[in-house]
Specification:
This protein has 221 residues and is mainly alpha-helical. The protein has two domains: 117 residues, Leucine-rich Repeat Variant, CATH 1.25.10.10; 47 residues, no CATH class. 58% of the residues lie in helices and 2% in strands. α1 runs antiparallel to α2, α2 packs parallel to α4 and α7 runs antiparallel to α8.
């Protein structure tokens, strides 16, 4: 019988409260400190995966569940002048699934942001939070972006909307080309993980992604 992951530890909750207090008091603070605190919040909100180290075994556990006040506090930094701060706001908020009413305006702004790093974070959050319908207008513009990560995440987010055909065309045209190094490997991992957003082909039983993955494997040979 599968056992549900346990909740966050008392240490997680204590750190969470401390970082939030520092964020609340951080008016006009340095962007470096803000980035660090927002990264900490993102790590605390996301689930912890099982891991094994030399000294310890890390058991899986749920992340800290933010309330509306916590989410609004983080969202308050969405218009910061530093792009890295704006990106980290979006990265944290994608774990606040139960507060989409607060998160939606932030993601809408991120997808319209003039910085591609922030747009990419917005497209990923839209996909992971399944907000394709709510953000359709912004995502339709994003699938024409010059940056590959924006296009594929936006296309995957649109797969659950009436714009599936256009999304699939963009997504499969963006399969990673053969390349060297960890960057190419990471691109392939991202693209393959997003394949699940697309349904089977209308003709035949094989999913589109299986066909596309065969093409990707052929490129790597």
């Amino acid at each position: 019988m599968r056992q549900e992951p346990r909740g966050p530890t008392q240490r997680d909750l204590a750190i969470h409260a401390d970082v939030l207090a520092r964020l609340a008091a951080d008016e006009g603070g340095s962007s470096d400190k803000l980035q660090s605190r927002l990264e900490r919040i993102e790590r605390l909100w996301r689930p912890v995966q099982a891991a094994y180290t030399i000294r310890d075994v890390i058991e899986p556990r749920r992340g800290v569940a933010p309330n509306a006040e916590h989410v609004a506090l983080v969202a308050g930094f969405r218009a910061h002048a530093c792009r890295e701060v704006r990106q980290r706001v979006v990265n944290a908020l994608r774990h606040a699934r139960t507060h989409s009413d607060i998160v939606l305006p932030v993601l809408r702004g991120a997808l319209r942001d003039g910085d591609l790093l922030v747009q990419s974070a917005g497209a990923r959050a839209a996909y992971e939070m399944r907000l394709g319908v709510e953000l359709t207008a912004e995502l339709l513009k994003a699938i024409d972006a010059p940056t590959w990560t924006i296009r594929v995440y936006a296309a995957a987010a649109l797969a659950s909307t009436p714009h599936l055909e256009r999304a699939a065309e963009t997504f499969f045209a963006s399969s990673p080309a053969r390349g060297q190094g960890s960057g190419a490997e990471r691109a392939s991992e991202i693209w393959s993980s997003l394949c699940v957003a697309f349904p089977p082909e209308s003709e035949g039983d094989r999913p589109r992604c299986r066909i596309a993955s065969n093409v990707l494997s052929a490129k790597a040979r």
